[in-house]
Amino acid sequence: MAGKNWQAGGRDSIPALALVCLLATSASYGLAWAAPPVSGGSAPSSYSGELDPNMIWEMLIGGIVVVSFLAAAGLWVLSALRRVKRSQLRRSAFVSSALNNLSQGVVMTDVRQRIIYCNDRYLEIYGLVRADIPRNMTGPELLEVRRKRGALDVSVDEFYAQAATADGLITELPNGKSVLVKYFRLPNGGSVATHEDCTAQRKLSRKLASTTQFLESVLDNVPVCVAAKNIEDGRYIFANRAFERFSRFSRDHIVGKRADEIFQPETARTIDTADQSALKAPEGYHRSEFEVERGSEKRVLASNRVIARDENNQPEFLIALFDDVTDRRSLSRELESTKKFLELVVDNIPVSLIVERVSDGKYLLANRSAETILNRRREDATGLTAADIFNPREAKLIIARDEAAIKKRGLLTEEHPISTKDGLRLFLTRRMTVLDDAGEPQYLIKTHEDVTDRRQTESRMAHMAYHDGLTDLPNRAAFLQALAQMIEACEGTEEEFAVLCIDLDGLKEVNDVFGHAMGDKVLTEVAQRLQDCARGGVVARLGGDEFGLIIDGKQPSAGIALAEQVAIALAKEFQIDGKPVRAGATTGISVFPHNGSDAAALLANSGAALFRAKAKSRGSISVFEPEMDQQIRDRRVLHQDLSVAIKNGELSLYYQPQAASGPTVATSEVIGFEALARWMHPVRGFVSPGDFIPLAEESGLIVEMGEWILREACREAASWPVPMQIAVNLSPAQFMHGDVVSLVHSILLETGLAPDRLELEITEGVLIEDFDRGLALLRRLKALGVRISMDDFGSGYSSLSYLQAFPFDKIKIDRAFVMHLGRNPQSAAIVRAVIDLGHGLEMSIVAEGVETQEQLSFLSEEGCDAVQGYFIGKPLPIGQYAALVGRNVINGIESTRKTG
Ligand code: C2E
Ligand code: CA
Ligand code: CA
Predict the structure, then answer these.
(1) How far is CA 299 from CA 168, 220, 292, 295, 712, in A?
(2) Number of domains within the chain
(3) I need a labelling partner for 526 at 20 to 30 A (CA). Which of 251, 496, 534, 829 fits?
(4) Which residues surround ligand 3, an ion (CB under 5 A)?
């Protein structure tokens, strides 16, 4: 069998064949030399002629000997040859069988690529039979055969190119097997190819690859950071995606590097310490928690390090698994502190809290406040039942209430007295049942709130709701109730009664001069005096300095008599903290049933009467008359009209000159104008600013109106060829409600008026309402470059402190003082003092309301800086002063300064 593997021209048989040929050749030559040729052919010339018979015999015998010898030699040679061939065959059979028993297929070719050997395994692998490989078939031819039969999946050229590489060629056979072919060229030009069935290996390595891939993908997707490193050199060999994300380095950056090449020194040190601990750990793993730096933040890692050992039990790899637990830690810390916090809260809430287990009625929890009710320390109460704590009678009651709450499965609230070590107290008890998952009552939460104080407070508050806190008199609400009761009592009878509305005069001054504490004492004293006067009648405090009284009897005489009594009582000097304080009363009266059939109307009408009384004079008494009501209604209508006045263009500005004071008008040079608002009502004609400005202030309309006035005045002044001063009045309400600073600023920008030409006239009201705010706004206004003047100086009372608080540019002495100059020596003294005071504070002085030559003379002599008044010029439309502001005189009418 083996001998068949060798194809013709097999290399090892060649020497044997050569030897046989050689011997044959030499034998034939020897015969030719010893005897004449047996067969035809030309004989040598020396043997021609007759032969001797002896010689013939001799020759014959010699020939026989030679032939025998030759035959013997030949036989020997043949047997030797056979022996050689046998041994050769044995050898090749041995080689063949050895090759055949290889698990690999082997194919050999000679220098001409002819196949000289091919083992059985080869045939078996490719499903060939020996007949498929005829003599002299070449390697490529065999490959073609295989290709045709589907036992080669590449071209012949590819086969040789691939198979000759170190990795060899893997061909896949239709039967699913994989064969690894390696092709070697031999030095003699031949070749050997080995064919190895690698199906199992391939499957294994494929499986291994997919398993590795699977494991890697698992590792990549676990939310824990995983990294592995070689223990020998400490270099990372693996890092999963979580590790990449955490470290913010890519895997390529990590793998192959040591920790100190990747991380900050401190972090690398921490990692190293953890690694070392893991290596030393006898269990082969090490858990730890440590901090590392990531960028600028510190993170807490919980790590588990495992050591993987080789077959010799030597540490080979270190696998680090870790998790960023920073948030978890802070969360658990937070949770812990929240729990502590809640415990603290529960323990400290001023409500007693007890939690009871429904199944056995045992107390599970009690807070500090519960100690009062339980009469023991809270820790001593847990585990006990109501029967253990309270006396039988109390316990029975408590258990019954508990059971009622449990039965109700909801909230049960009740208020009842409980005797405590502090005496009998009123408690509000709430019982709340907590159900378990199955909906059965599990716990009972009981809170006991000591409401003793609260109930007291409530009754106190109820009192407060109807009483004035300062004087303890009934308040407006209570007064209205009392009125309603009076009306009810008198309705349908002849009875009448009066409602007195009393305004306390002088309280504002007391507050301003002596402070509010003093004002409060005055009010308390006033309340006392009013009650004395009322002799049991209702007295109420209706508001700040307004009081209400109800008096029955014949009206209005009884009412008026009481009002007079009150006036006398309040006129008496008050001695508060040893200081004499003066006050007074102005009273309005309305009468039931004539001035109203309900409480509100009666009170409103006594208010209207008071309004009239105040307008008349301080300290007067006024009884309601129907036309007063009309006046109030009138005011409302006027207010309505005013709200549309700007839109309807009914507002305008008049300008009154201000002059530097000289002895005469002619020598008093006009330096500027004050803008004064005028309202031309479509029906009523001119309405005085003294009427509509307070109305606008009350309603807040002044903010819009003031804006219009300021813009109009600045726009006008900016158009004057002569850059005269322009003074504009600002109302306190504009400071309170509008953004006056931005307004002035934007109007200056808008109109282009130089800030130093604008003068803002303000009254003390700005500072009285809210001193700090007023002052701050004035400072900011001044910072804009405008000037601020104090208007109506002397008409109020605490002006001096305001002059000190803010560096006004100008003081305008109120008309009231100027008016009496020459008639009243005190006025002269006051004016003189104000001029000196102002100059001392480096403020210039303007006198208002100058109407006569005498007043002018006096003021100019006293060094008053400027004057304003009808004597200099009346408030008029600016057209009337065109010449003064440098405008062309229209229609030849020259402007006059003293007319108007
Ligand atoms: P005020 O700011 O003190 O204005 C001066 C007032 O005195 C003006 O009254 C003016 O016509 C009047 N007056 C001027 N010279 C004399 C005189 O020689 N004799 C007399 N008897 N009166 C003189 P008016 O225009 O009726 O304004 C009254 C008040 O209305 C002003 O007093 C001011 O407080 C307020 N007011 C006027 N216009 C405005 C305004 O545009 N804005 C604001 N907020 N208030 C204004
Ligand atoms: Ca003014
Ligand atoms: Ca004034």
Answers:
(1) 52, 21, 5, 10, 67
(2) 5
(3) 496
(4) 791-792, 848
